[in-house]
TrEMBL record:
The lineage of its organism: Bacteria, Pseudomonadati, Bacteroidota, Sphingobacteriia, Sphingobacteriales. This is Histone H1. It comes from Pedobacter quisquiliarum. Pfam families: Hc1 (PF07432). InterPro entries: Hc1. Belongs to the histone H1/H5 family. HCT subfamily. Might have a role analogous to that of eukaryotic histone proteins. GO terms for molecular function: DNA binding; structural constituent of chromatin. It comes from the Bacteria.
Length: 59
């Protein structure tokens, strides 16, 4: 559950940069958004693996 909380924090933290990129055309904010999206992808994969392991161990 700790990783899921971190995922939610990461999404909330990138919201301002996403707004700056899409609404103001700030290129540096776009770079930060891309970096955060990569972190989200990696974290989501870790969560998927963890869930699969837990699901399979209950059988």
């Amino acid at each position: 559950m700790e990783k899921f909380s971190k995922l939610k924090e990461l999404v909330a933290g990138v919201e301002a940069d996403a707004d700056k990129f899409y609404n103001s055309g700030n290129g540096a904010a776009g770079t930060r958004v891309r970096k955060a999206m990569q972190e989200l992808k990696n974290l989501a994969q870790e969560i998927r693996t963890e869930v699969t392991e837990k699901k399979n161990s209950d059988k």
